Amino acid sequence: MTFDVAAIREQFPILSREVDGKPLVYLDNAATTQKPQCVIDALVDYYSTCNSNVHRGAHRLADEATQRYEGARDIVAGFINADCREEVVWTSGTTEAINVVAHGLAQLLKADDEVLVTEMEHHANLVTWQQACKQAGATLKVAPICDNGELRVDEFEKLLSDNTKLVAFPHVSNSLGTINPVKQLVQLAKKVGAWVLVDGAQGIAHGAVDVRDLGCDFYAFSGHKVFGPTGIGVLWGRKSLLEEWPVWQTGGEMISEVTYQDARWNELPYRLEAGTPHIAGAIGLGEAIRWFSELDFDGMKAHETALMESATRQAEAFEGLTIIGNSPEKTGVLSFVMDAGHPADIGFLLDRQGIAIRTGHHCAEPLMNRLGVPGTARASFSIYNTLEEVDALFAALKKVQMMLA
Ligand code: PMP
């Protein structure tokens, strides 16, 4: 079966819009992905037909809303191969998912404990652990990368010790596209008995994720990076850990019994989901994952590889352009700088040609400092991008180069 990009594009209404009379070329997928019509319809249908609060209502709408909402949890649990649905905790996104874990960890850490991250972290997977360590008087260690953006696995291993309580790293780097050897890193961390959190923000939309096979303890991702709505995400965690994890927010839903003086916590996943959740978001994410999981993943991988190869080939041949991040294992992201001008100018001039990329430090300021660049221009690809769009990017970059000369 071939991967029918045209048929996929037709399902995304936004892809047929224009920007200043030019067809939109959307290459900012690492920031957020676009939404297929079925996801938009799921949101509209929920609000149009069964909008209600979940779990607590004694009426038809509440039942229907609860069924759709909890059904979405089942879809996610199945997609990531969770052991059970209780392991899927709704959060507002990757950031909140990591915060849930870090907030609890801060209470579990002791002064000589260590947390290990990498030099390629997004701020969401760095500042959280910094703060948890500060609170507990523990130490944050940072595993180095090579100049090409690949993790130094040998150094990572050396930094592990019996004091390492938790290791956190991205599945895929948002700034460089580096794919980390998750299973290998998990195995190394497990030798010293550390918990492992994988920041899956950029990993989730590039194929099947099997949390049991990866062997990690926590996997965090955002709905909006996998064709779902913003404001909803997932913390997957091992049931045995989440059952004991210090609670995050307190309030309604997360309790089982309350007196004026005290409270007992609800069971999983509700103990980590205080307050009225983003019901529509969860339903939309369930639909997004259902839609995504029905794609031909082999065809999708081949298509994404072809996009990356074409982009890399054209970037390498482009005089005055330097690729930032050349890891042999890479997906979805082409980060670069140009002699002609600052990344912000490149982004501005591409936008004038209908091409959407992102520029700046990509929420990875220490990484940019490590690589000696103020920021990069980043084109990031998704399944609906075409080889013609990659060509359009480079034709537009030629014009940018001339405009800035
Ligand atoms: N980690 C990585 C690697 C990311 O790319 C992002 C989003 N750019 C995040 C974490 C944070 O995701 P969100 O803003 O959706 O919480």
Q: Biggest β-sheet, characterized?
A: 7 strands, mixed
* Gyration radius over CA: 22 Å
CATH architecture of the largest domain: 3-Layer(aba) Sandwich
Highest-level CATH class of the largest domain: Alpha Beta
Q: How many strand elements? A: 17
Question: Span from first to last CA?
Answer: 46 Å
Per CATH, the superfamily of the largest domain is Type I PLP-dependent aspartate aminotransferase-like (Major domain)
The poorly predicted ranges are none
Q: Indicate the proportion of strand residues.
A: 15-25%
Ligands in the model, by name, code or SMILES, are: 4'-deoxy-4'-aminopyridoxal-5'-phosphate
Strand order of the largest sheet: 4-10-9-8-7-5-6
How is this structure best described in words?
The protein has 14 helices and 17 strands. It is α/β, with parallel strands linked by helices and 405 residues long. It has helices at 5-10, 37-50, 60-79, 94-108, 127-136, 153-159, 182-191, 211-214, 239-242, 279-293, 297-316, 343-351, 365-371, 387-404; strands at residues 18-19, 22-23, 25-26, 88-91, 114-118, 139-143, 164-170, 195-199, 218-222, 233-237, 255-258, 263-265, 321-323, 333-338, 355-356, 358-360, 376-380. Helix 7 links the parallel strand 7 (164-170) and strand 8. It folds into 2 domains: 5-30 and 296-404, Aspartate Aminotransferase, domain 1, CATH 3.90.1150.10; 41-293, Aspartate Aminotransferase, domain 2 (3-Layer(aba) Sandwich). Residues 30, 93-95, 122, 124-125, 170, 174, 199, 201-202, 222, 363 line the site of 4'-deoxy-4'-aminopyridoxal-5'-phosphate.
